[in-house]
Write a structure and sequence with these properties.
Layout lengths: L1 E4 L6 E4 L8 H14 L1 E4 L6 H11 L12 E4 L13 H8 L16 E8 L7 E5 H7 L2 H7 L3 E4 L1 H7 L19 E3 L1 E3 L6 E3 L5 E2 L6 H15 L5 E4 L6 E5 L3 E5 L9 E7 L12
Parallel strand pairs: 2-3
Antiparallel strand pairs: 1-2, 3-13, 4-15, 5-13, 5-15, 6-12, 6-14, 7-8, 7-11, 9-10
Bound molecules: N-oxalylglycine (OGA) and manganese (II) ion.
C-alpha cells in the first residue's frame, strides 16, 4: 500500500490496495493514515455496495439516510436514469451542499465519517473540496481563540437551506423532521486524536449570547478564514474513485457543474458516537 500526502494540510491518496477485498492489516494502516490526514482518496476502486457498507462499518454503526438503506445515492438521476426535478427538495439539498458543511450536524448525533464513491461524473466541475479545521484552529490568533472558546452554535438544515433560497418542507428529506435543533461548541476536540478543530459550516447559526448579525458575521468570518490554502484540498472525480473523510475535523463542499450532465455517487455515512457527537443541549 502506498500513501501519498497532498500539498495541503489534509488529505492523502492511497494506492496499492483493493477496497473490495480489504484485510484487517490493511484496514489498520488505512485507519492510522485517516487519523493523520483526515481525508483519504482511493482512485479507481469501483467498490461494490456491500464492500462500501462494510468499509463504513469498520469505523462504526451507519446512519440510514433513507429507510433501511445503509448506502444511498447522491445523484441528479433517478433509478430509471431520468433527470431529477431541479426544483425538488432532493436536488435543492444537493445544491445546498455546495456550501461548506459537515454531515449530519443538524441531526441529534453529528456524523463520524462519510465515504463517497463516484459512478458517473460530469466532464467539467463537480469536484469535492475538503478544508482542514484542525489546521484552521491552529492558525487562529489568540484573541479569536479566546473569543470563541466557550461559544456554541445551533445546527439546522431548515436554516441552511433557507439561506440558499430553498424553503424546505417538514418531512421532505433526511434532516427535515421535527427533531430538536442541536447546539454544538465551535471548538470540537477529536475523540480519538484529541486535536482541537473548528466545528462550523453552513448549518451553524444562532450563537447563544450573540444577536443574529453578530452570530452570522462571526461564523462567516471563521469559515472564510478556515477555508483557505494551505488548508483546502480538491478532488476531481473519475468513475470508481472512493473518498473517505472524518466529519469531526473537516468541512467539505461540492463544486458546481452543468446540471444537465449526470453525476451519480454512492454515499455511506458513519454515525457519531453519543459520547462525543451529541449536542450539548440534548
Ligand atoms: C456528501 C456531500 C459532496 C459532493 O456526500 O455528503 O456533501 O461533492 N457530497 O457530492
Ligand atoms: Mn456532505
Amino acid at each position: 500500500m502506498n500513501i501519498e500526502p497532498t500539498q495541503a494540510t489534509l488529505g492523502a491518496t492511497v494506492t496499492g490496495v483493493n477496497l473490495n477485498s480489504l484485510n484487517d492489516d490493511q484496514w489498520q494502516a488505512i485507519e492510522a493514515a485517516w487519523y493523520q490526514y483526515a481525508v483519504l482518496v482511493f482512485p479507481a476502486q469501483h467498490i461494490e455496495e456491500n464492500a462500501h457498507i462494510a468499509l463504513g462499518e469498520r469505523i462504526g454503526p451507519l446512519e440510514e439516510l433513507m429507510t433501511n438503506r445503509k448506502a444511498v445515492p447522491i445523484s441528479n438521476r433517478k433509478a430509471d436514469g431520468s433527470s431529477v426535478d431541479l426544483s425538488s427538495d432532493h436536488f435543492q439539498i444537493l445544491k445546498g451542499n455546495e456550501g461548506w458543511h459537515t454531515d449530519s450536524t443538524y441531526m441529534p448525533l453529528s456524523a463520524r465519517a462519510s465515504i463517497l464513491a463516484a459512478d458517473v461524473v460530469p466532464e467539467e466541475g463537480g469536484q469535492t473540496e475538503w478544508a482542514d479545521m484542525r489546521a484552521a484552529f491552529d492558525a487562529l490568533d489568540s484573541a479569536t481563540r479566546e473569543k470563541i472558546a466557550d461559544l456554541a452554535a445551533h445546527h439546522s438544515l431548515y436554516y441552511s437551506q433557507a439561506k440558499v433560497g430553498h424553503k424546505a418542507s417538514s418531512g421532505a428529506s433526511y434532516g427535515l423532521s421535527d427533531q430538536d435543533v442541536p447546539l454544538r461548541p465551535l471548538i470540537k476536540v477529536h475523540p480519538v486524536t484529541q486535536r482541537p478543530a473548528l466545528f462550523i459550516g453552513r448549518h451553524a447559526h444562532a450563537i447563544p449570547g450573540s444577536n443574529e448579525e453578530e452570530s452570522e458575521s462571526l461564523l462567516t468570518q471563521l469559515t472564510d478564514f478556515a477555508c483557505q490554502p494551505p488548508r483546502v484540498f480538491a478532488h476531481s472525480w473519475r468513475p470508481g474513485d472512493v473518498v473517505m473523510w472524518d466529519n469531526r475535523c473537516v468541512l467539505h463542499r461540492a463544486r458546481p457543474y452543468d446540471y444537465s450532465q449526470p453525476r451519480t455517487m454512492r454515499h455511506v455515512r458513519v454515525a457519531g458516537d453519543p459520547r462525543s457527537e451529541a449536542g450539548i443541549n440534548s
